[in-house]
Sequence to fold (142 residues):
Amino acid sequence: MSALESSKPKQARQAAAIPFRQRSQKIEFCLVKSSSGRWIFPKGSINSKYDYAETALNEAFEEAGLHGQIIGKPLGYYNIEKESGSFYVVAVLMKVSKADPSWKEDSWRERRWASPKDAFKLFAEKIYHDLVDLAIERIENQ
Fold:
């Protein structure tokens, strides 16, 4: 994965939701387990039916049973390398209003709420640390 960029480098092919909630004045992020077993934020391909914000909301719903709204402009952009090629991802902050007890991918995808400190321990890639830092800054300045 490449470094997080603040401006749009080129057309994003995927969108990632950075889902959060606040409980007792503390921020928690929702992470999901990828098919390879790594902890990530929900993300998926942008198609002609949805823009990046709608894609991020849809992926958070399918992968983690989350409902909510996108807060502000994108947090940033990053590149991921997969067997099928290189993909630019747009990351957006999502304020969660509800988490369903079961969801479309719950038979194979785990969901976990984590404090920023715990999220840092769970994430293997530094890009997710950068996203958490930017998300916290935006949440605290709302």
